[in-house]
Amino acid sequence: MTLRISDDNKVRTLTLDRPEALNAFTEELYLATATALDEASADPDVAVVLLTGEGRAFSAGNDLKEMQARIADGSYSGGSNFPRMITALADLTKPLICAVNGVGVGIGTTILGYADLVFMSSTARLKCPFTSLGVAPEAASSYLLPQLMGRQNAAWMLLSSEWVDAEEAHRMGIAWKVCAPEELLADARRHADVLAARPVSSLTAVKRTIAQSYRAGIADATARENAEFADLLGGAANAAALDQFSQRR
């Protein structure tokens, strides 16, 4: 199982469920998450989507072991389910709440650009490791993070490949609330229940009006990022970083 789905009082909870791999995204998990988001959008009985992770990580990002294998065998050039998940996030018609229970790396951080509310455990940390991997940003983060955090905060996160702790993430504006680890899910769920008590038609109208102003920017940034990523993927810096990752394993 890669994704657990549960419903309670119009709140659909999606739990990334690869704790042994720190909930790193494989092609299977990208597809499962995209499908679940699309289904939540279409389900009239779902008012709010709550996304979290199982175990000690929110998500360690892209599964680099799988990524390296796909680059080596040439299958990576044949496409990925990653864009499908990003489209599902951008098109989600219901409010999205993220409960960051542990480390968020790569897409485990950039996915927060699509969230309407982000709750973060006080022990969680975030990192965008793109420059340390010799690649470019992803998931329209080069557009969404400056919008969310301000240009300089986003620039540091995207350029440095350094960790950002929960307190700093809150100061920067990528986390709305910081919670004690044992209170994270309950706090996120209490706020989800407040939203779920409102008419779904009104929630979707608010979500639609907020999201509409970002659609063109997301599309443009995605095109730019994809071109840069494709140019750098498999290059000298990227190959060296992946080789170093393999040696550490």
General description of the model:
This is Crotonase. InterPro entries: ClpP/crotonase-like_dom_sf (IPR029045), ECH/Chromodomain_protein (IPR051053), Enoyl-CoA_hydra/iso (IPR001753). Helices cover 50% and strands 17% of the residues. It is an alpha/beta fold and 249 residues long. It has one domain (3-183): 2-enoyl-CoA Hydratase, Chain A, domain 1. The strands form 2 sheets. A 6-stranded mixed sheet has the order 1-2-3-5-7-10, sandwiched between helices. Helix 1 (27-42) links the parallel strand 2 (11-16) and strand 3. Helix 1 (27-42) runs parallel beside helix 3, helix 5 packs across helix 6 (151-160) and helix 5 packs across helix 9 (200-232). The mean pLDDT is 93.
Task: Please describe the topology of this protein.
Elements: E1 3-8, E2 11-16, H1 27-42, E3 48-53, E4 57-59, H2 64-73, H3 82-91, E5 96-100, E6 103-105, H4 107-110, E7 117-121, E8 125-127, H5 141-149, H6 151-160, E9 164-165, H7 166-172, E10 177-179, H8 184-196, H9 200-232, H10 236-248
Low-pLDDT residue intervals, each spanning 5 or more residues: none
CATH level 1 class label: Alpha Beta
Main sheet: strand order:
1-2-3-5-7-10
Please state the overall shape, judged from the principal axes of the Cα atoms. Answer: globular
